Amino acid sequence: MSLWLWVLAACAAVYATKLLGYLVPEGWLKHPAVGRVSAMLTIGLLAALVAMNTFSADQTVVIDARLGALAAAAVALLLRAPFIVVVLVGAATAAGIRALG
Fold this sequence. Notes:
By secondary structure, this protein is mainly alpha-helical. The protein has 5 helices and 2 strands, in the order H-H-H-E-E-H-H.
């Protein structure tokens, strides 16, 4: 199977999943458990994405400037800095660590 067939199959699967979401009864979505589970899933998926992008490279675990940038951004978040400041602090920290070594 060629790459384009796989891409088209993935597009069809995603579109079908989205269409199935519209068929879920509204009463189910208003249930409190659904809200709690969806909030926890969102946080878990975001944490996994951050961890994978911070600690992995070429199917190995690495510790590099990304860890320092994440720590600096976390400190900026704890200090309640605006989002753009958090991003700039993280980027500047990564650039500084990479420039040093």
